[in-house]
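Researcher: Can you fold this with EPU in place?
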Amino acid sequence: MPAQPLVFTDQDLHASNTLGLPARAGLAVLEDESVIPAFCKTLAAGRQQAEAPVFVLGGGSNLVMDARPRHRVLRVALRGIRLWQETADHWIVEAAAGESWHGFVDHCLAQGWPGLENLALIPGTVGAAPVQNIGAYGLELDQRLHSVVVWDLQAGRESTLPPDACGFAYRDSLFKRDGAGRWLIVRVRFLLPKAWTPRLDYPDLRDHPGLRSVGAGGPGAPSPRRIFEAVCDIRRRKLPDPAVLGNAGSFFKNPVVDADQAARLRQRFPDLRVYPQADGRAKLAAGWLIEQAGWKGRRLGPVGMHARQALVLVNHGGAQADDVRALARAVRADVRRLFEVDLEQEPVILD
Ligand code: EPU
């Protein structure tokens, strides 16, 4: 039976954003790739009639949603994981965009395809992962990416993009820069090396009690599953579970400043957390800046900065998008005043 065309109906989206903000919008759910060509045609016709633009939604875990967005929302619920190709050196694994990211990482390990374990427990979907080039504990998605199968909703065309066509940078990509209405990621392929070696550069991970007793390489090296478990443990300790306390993960990016500014700040603040970058600039730990500015664990109305990780904005209950905006403004202003550093918001806005 041919799949039904997509229909948008007014829905409550409160449970569709991990910050738990109240929202209603027209929603359609994409469960079958075969409807996409017809959907592109209706979009083109709709543009001529000035219909509401479409916003492509994954897990809603990197999102600030307005109560009544002008956008219509397309939730991607495509499913499926398969070994797409096997070469002498790699497993190339393909996952549909609607799969849960964490479930996918877990599944890969269970199949004996390691390489994504440092990215365990990141909320959201596989399709959203390339959008902000997710990264944690010493690994960024682009280092394990084979290609992204994507529809250009404006041109009505499908293409397969290799990593160097995706414009990846720290927490950024072509898909993010162009806005959530242009690209519809349908499948993502990962290049997982058979000659796996553990990535244990990140201090939290290297020093984790579950891994400390074993060497970084050789016969005593920890297994991918053990690294997966250590990452889950670190995240559970620091980061609030969105099912318990609404949040969108890190609310700001770690700012990158030039070497001179980093050196000047270091003189004034000897404890400043600085990560030198390959291009000579320096990345600063935004969580540290926010904590020094007095915002760790502090509230403004129904929202606040988390008590165990100051970079995470949390909804203590009943917050609206404007409460989130007010807190973000206050935090940015205080950090700017103290350090002359501008924080950039990480979650996208659905307005
Ligand atoms: N720090 C503080 N106070 C805080 C928080 C952090 O002083 O309240 C200091 C820590 O002591 C540490 C440094 O800042 O020296 C870095 O902290 P952490 O290891 O927690 O990492 P992060 O830079 O704050 C980034 C990612 C996280 C990711 C971790 C681990 C961004 C915006 N965030 O956070 O991503 O899990 O590294 O790799 O790059 C997310 O995006 O939702 C997320 C959690």
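Model: Folded with EPU in place. DSSP finds nine helices and 20 strands in the chain.
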